[in-house]
């Protein structure tokens, strides 16, 4: 199962809106088939592994990182494929929460005489499939917020200089993290100030995540990197109802996809933004700020995972904060996160946290 989970992660960022599933088929203690969900979501992991195993699948055990699907979509259900291949036993962590499946796959397998074992490495599998479950159950993608800051929590000097606070090792890891997400998201202010490309570079990968900009008025540089490359790498812009129609037409002409969202006061409603991204199929979004967008996401309790890269440099109170004003008066109202891991990345420190859902 651990190997199947590793295989499934190869599909993260490439198979949305489908889950990134891994499958390993074992016959007499020997692996005879391996597979993971392919780009675009098809074919499924089980189909790939069964094709590799061939006749060796008969009487074998299939380790799958999610309940095999039971519904007819673009392809026949994987539970049916496992039955037809003669699989004797299926091991999976848990049921799929998608209402089209939700236990039906296991029912089909057991009705065909296949032994089903669940609960294996369920914690790791739940983390891997968190984005898929979040979209199915809440209609929005899993949101990871990444902040690269000085020791005192600043993202730039008072003049706006920010390249580079963290070192090359940290920046390379950020590119790897982008590669594991469906989309990279920034606010309009960051897009205007930094003119970012938001692509994965230096890893030798051809795939690129969707690039999302949250800009109420669509007032983004029409000669910037995002505009110049919108026809080659997807650019989605979440905008408000008061966006200029001329800019709307201009961005569509450049190849961008525009997602209308509602307002919350004078800003875009962050819940509406994530719901729009979920409706468009995204399951995992990697947000890289800026401060205003980060604050709105914290206020709406939408940050599921927080990744910080902290450098051994201090910029002082006049430096630009990583998170905008939250309007907190009481410490009890501050959003809380639980530490998952911390490690040195070159001269910097990475720390990863997940949102606390249970009371202390």
UniProtKB/TrEMBL annotation:
Gene3D superfamilies, per database record: Cytidine Deaminase, domain 2, Dihydrofolate Reductase, subunit A
Binding site for NADP(+): 148, 164, 190, 194, 290-296
Keywords, ordered alphabetically: Hydrolase, Metal-binding, Multifunctional enzyme, NADP, Oxidoreductase, Riboflavin biosynthesis, Zinc
GO molecular function: 5-amino-6-(5-phosphoribosylamino)uracil reductase activity; diaminohydroxyphosphoribosylaminopyrimidine deaminase activity; NADP binding; zinc ion binding
Record domain CMP/dCMP-type deaminase: where: 1-109
The enzyme's E.C. designation: 3.5.4.26, 1.1.1.193
Pathway the protein takes part in: Cofactor biosynthesis; riboflavin biosynthesis; 5-amino-6-(D-ribitylamino)uracil from GTP: step 3/4; Cofactor biosynthesis; riboflavin biosynthesis; 5-amino-6-(D-ribitylamino)uracil from GTP: step 2/4
Cofactor comment: Binds 1 zinc ion.
SUPFAM superfamilies (alphabetical): Cytidine deaminase-like, Dihydrofolate reductase-like
Binding site for Zn(2+): 44, 69, 78
InterPro entries (UniProt xref): APOBEC/CMP_deaminase_Zn-bd, CMP_dCMP_dom, Cytidine_deaminase-like, DHFR-like_dom_sf, Eubact_RibD, RibD_C, RibDG_C, Riboflavin_Biosynth_HTPR
Residues forming the catalytic site: 46
Reaction catalyzed: 5-amino-6-(5-phospho-D-ribitylamino)uracil + NADP(+) = 5-amino-6-(5-phospho-D-ribosylamino)uracil + NADPH + H(+); 2,5-diamino-6-hydroxy-4-(5-phosphoribosylamino)-pyrimidine + H2O + H(+) = 5-amino-6-(5-phospho-D-ribosylamino)uracil + NH4(+)
Cofactor dependency: Zn(2+)
Residues given in the record as substrate binding sites: 162, 178, 198, 201, 288
Example of a GO biological process term: riboflavin biosynthetic process
Record-linked NCBIfam families: eubact_ribD, ribD_Cterm
Job of this protein: Converts 2,5-diamino-6-(ribosylamino)-4(3h)-pyrimidinone 5'-phosphate into 5-amino-6-(ribosylamino)-2,4(1h,3h)-pyrimidinedione 5'-phosphate.
Protein's recorded name: Riboflavin biosynthesis protein RibD
Upper taxonomic lineage: Bacteria, Pseudomonadati, Pseudomonadota, Alphaproteobacteria, Rhodobacterales
